[in-house]
């Protein structure tokens, strides 16, 4: 889909030919003399618009505009959240198969946050997954023109939002693909494809190289599957080679059956989404390729299946991680932390500014925070604050959870340095405490996206989160240093 931003008043907007014109009307709207403003004024006066955010009035071929359909939609004060609600409602009101060109118009000067929210919401509302359908119904929308009186103030935010959308859609694509269409090898192929962008390079390691690195924890998870593991090393070089990179690590379990500690059958299909962290790394690199900020970023993806064969790792097995720490695998379903701990140790070699891992790690995090905020853990104050702020800016929010030393109690093992599970209580936190043991050499944060990475039920599908948060965080790095 093609986005464009133009400075236009309501007179110019009314003359623009399109399949649908969506007019976002703020509470404080004052009608000028032109026809479209007058029309909005009448709807407001009649009490049809101001009632609540997302309330719409639909018109078909009104004389006041060149558009086939016009949807007026109230947007309250025009905050990012309100704009999102309004755009979703407006698109809902004119969803027709032939919608090719939409003009989205701010009837009063918009903020940067509002424009970002509008672009992201438009993309979200019109996204369509097609890869494994025999009769694909791709998104009909080809062009979205964002019109605002103050477009020149909004250009940066607009460009950023368009790049985030491209990243989110790449992440959605890979997370949505079923596990037989998104094997570790195919996922690594998607990473390699990103290296066609000038500042990006990609290296993919296989089982032999990973064994040579002594990634015993990652290997233990992968050994239960016939599908070969892959370890992806992506690099985005936007700054001098001497500048330390930020490393992002995405959990890439392309299917999580639980292993010998097998999961119940209900909703097990959703464990194809267990590589959503990896997908968010791919999406973030896509956005970096488009925005070209002056920073260095490394993306690491440990990718494998968590399955069950005659060689599968068993509860009670003790393995040696790349760090040298031994781990008693008490539950083979706590596999995410096993693949991540070796990737975190690998990250040391980059002498990173910071390392952020992104993982659909625990059901406990879903219980704690639902699908709204991602869980965030960090023992580094500035990093935690920067991630929180980035989440708010991107409308891709997270919530910090604690890392008190008291939570490690449950991870004690009689047969190894550490066990891979604590008790049921505080499960998202004990998982984070496990990871923390492998992060002594750099500032670290962990994002548990088990609740936020996909939706269940009728609208089952990946959300592309937290690409928005990550891109906002990384761009803030490029301006602060
Ligand atoms: N991928 C799951 C976490 C998950 C579960 C994400 C449900 C989204 C929805 C992870 O590998 C897992 O199985 N975690 C276990 C850990 C437990 C065995 C300590 C869990 O959360 O049940
Ligand atoms: Mn699991
Ligand atoms: Zn998992």
| CATH architectural grouping of the largest domain | 3-Layer(aba) Sandwich
What is the percent of helical residues? 25-40%
Instruction: Report the mean per-residue pLDDT as an integer.
Output: 97
Bound molecules: ligand BES, manganese (II) ion, zinc ion
How many DSSP H or I helices?
14
- The first-level CATH class of the largest domain is given as Alpha Beta
CATH topology-level name of the largest domain: Aminopeptidase
Oligomer: single chain
- List the domain count as a whole number: 2
Number of strands: 20
Task: State Rg.
Answer: 24 Å
Structural class category: alpha/beta
Q: Which stretches of 5+ consecutive residues score pLDDT under 50? A: none
- Overall shape: it is elongated
Roughly how many Å apart are the termini?
Answer: 33 Å
- Portion in strands: 15-25%
* The named CATH superfamily of the largest domain: Zn peptidases
Q: Biggest β-sheet, characterized?
A: 9 strands, mixed
What would your notes on this structure say?
There is one protein chain. The chain is of the alpha/beta class and 481 residues long. The chain has 2 domains: 150 residues, Leucine Aminopeptidase, subunit E, domain 1 (3-Layer(aba) Sandwich), CATH 3.40.220.10; 314 residues, Zn peptidases (Aminopeptidase, 3-Layer(aba) Sandwich), CATH 3.40.630.10. It is 35% helix and 21% strand. It is built from 14 helices and 20 strands. The strands form 4 sheets. Strands 7, 8, 9, 10, 11, 14, 15, 16 and 18 form a 9-stranded mixed beta sheet that branches. A hairpin with a 5-residue loop joins strand 12 and strand 13. Helix 8 packs antiparallel against helix 10 and helix 12 crosses helix 14. The longest helix is centred in the middle third of the chain and has 26 residues. The protein is elongated, with a radius of gyration of 24 Å. The model has no long low-confidence stretch (mean pLDDT 97). The structure holds ligand BES, manganese (II) ion and zinc ion (ZN). The site of manganese (II) ion (MN) has 5 residues, from loops.
